[in-house]
Amino acid sequence: MKTWKRTSAGLMAFAMLLTACPAITANAENETEMKFGALTYELDEDGLIAITGFDKSVTEVVIPAEIDGKPVIMIDDSVFENCTELTSVTITEGVMSIGSGAFANCTGLTEITIPGSVFGIGGSAFADCTGLKTVKLEEGVQILEDNAFMGCTSLAEIDFPDTLITVASDAFSDTPLLESQTGTIRYISDWLIDCEETATDFTIKDGTRGIAACAFENCENLVEISIPDSVYSVCDDAFLNTPLYDTQEGVIYADNWVIGYDETVPVDLREGTRGIVEGVFMFTDVSELKLPESLRTIGMTCFAFTPLETLTLPADVKILGPMPFALCTVLEEVTIGSGVENIPIMAFMGCAVKTVHISKSVKQISFAAFMECPNLTDIYYDGTEAEWNAIKKEAFNTALDGAVIHFADVAEPTCSLGDLDADGSVNATDAAMLLCAAAASGAGGDSGLNEMQIAAADLNSDNTYDALDAAIILQYAAYAGAGGKDSIEDFVNSL
Fold this sequence. Notes:
Blueprint (H helix, E strand, L loop, with lengths): L8 H12 L11 E5 L2 E5 L5 E6 L5 E4 L2 E2 L2 E6 L12 E4 L5 E2 L12 E4 L5 E2 L12 E4 L5 E2 L12 E3 L6 E2 L8 H4 L5 E4 L2 E5 L14 E2 L21 E2 L16 E4 L2 E5 L13 E2 L20 E2 L11 E3 L6 E2 L12 E4 L5 E2 L11 E4 L5 E2 L12 E4 L3 H6 L1 E2 L10 E4 L20 H15 L8 H7 L9 H15 L6 H7 L1
Parallel strand pairs: 3-6, 4-7, 6-8, 8-10, 9-11, 10-12, 11-13, 12-14, 16-17, 17-18, 20-21, 21-22, 22-24, 23-25, 25-27, 26-28, 27-29, 28-30, 29-31
Antiparallel strand pairs: 1-2, 2-3, 5-6, 15-16, 19-20
């Protein structure tokens, strides 16, 4: 059996997150350590804060979203580790990352809520919190790293949000969530977490939404598998060291998901492909790529560090994991399809992108999605300026400010005779609009009407619009209000 090397896409994602934000990289020259209550924090030159220390005698703590108006971005590694007297932690919406071992062995904690602003939970972040019974992950949480809740021997309740993209290896090992299950395949919430290596039945239950990292690793009998359409995320190395890799070359599939690539042949993704596992093409020499129309999911760091030159996302692509195209340093043109609602964290960070086509389906451009994209000059947006302004644009996307935004041509409403406001009826509102326009025009000002409205205002066909035309509108409105059935055109002709 071939032995495949792990890509550790999740670890790479966290490393890239740390690199992207100056506030969460330790640099003594640029950061100042300060105190806020029981918390110690570092403020970097950009005004961003990382929590770096804690008075371990305190039993309750609130991690604020801001300190003195500066945003708190991260809880650093091991900040609360071994704080066994800590019984209550509140993490405020706005914090983006929880570092490795941040709350490890906080045995007094019984419950924790992770707000949706938290991008990821680091390795062993809550490991050995033996009193922890309930974990609430709010919508927005995307990554659970290795051993995140390992050894939480009281943990009996957790629900995964729909936004969850990655559940890493052993995130819940030695917890009742897994230990209480007797089948060969074990689940938490609607995710498949692991499978016994000696299993012979690999049926995935309906409604499963994700498959955790290394879930089927070393399953020696796994020669084929059916992945339900309900699955939207398959994590890295989910099928590592299984016979699936022995019978295929080039692009390696598990059912309709791409799980590996051995670079022996050019990339050819077959129609019917539903997803690409995280990190599959990372660091490969893929420069040209046609994504099939059937594609729905592109995993985290999937094409990061590749020489892709252009990219078009098909309309069915709805799920993009974090950093899918980060540091593609020759990628110049991108088209984002109509299925994407969120351009994820660091999606195109460090790319050479010059032109981006963005669908009006996009509702959010996440943290640093276009960070370090100095060549970005043009954005073609297929919606209106108002719709563009309504998109939530998170921090570190200043490249957007320097680009020219090209909005879609918006057709003017069609005005029929007498219906100046194009609302489908001829009434007193149209008459009032006409009179105001006539008055403004008569005083030498701008009527405010476009050519179509001017034509609609001339009901008596005398090449002008005035009180006589307004009177006809009012007559017709009264006629129609009394049950008259003639169109406005027939009514005018009858006068």
